[in-house]
Amino acid sequence: MRLALGQAGLKVQTEMPIPVWFRGELVGVFRADLVVNDVVLIELKACEALVREHESQTLHYLRATEIEVALLMNFGPKPRFKRLVMDNELKKPKEKSVSSLPIGVKPLVDAEVLS
Fold it and tell me: Beta-strand (E) ranges in the chain?
């Protein structure tokens, strides 16, 4: 795939690292199979059929980048592809309507509360 796209004059990056951030901290790195001309992400599979998890994975890759279009391609027994789109406007963080509260459990002070 990379070779054919490159021969067609397209810029192709393979195994492109995509940083994953959570609350301002780097928590991991995704690796996109192919990125073409910095505008199309291609995720390649070779399995019986595409499943929901493959779509979720590809959508996570889109969410973590400024790329808006992905092709999920399966080269299994019945070759198939799916085009996925995620507008950059949808990727912007939403404002919280309620302040976040710390999650924790306070130990019971009075044992009589349990009886």
Answer: 12-22, 25-36, 40-45, 69-74, 80-85
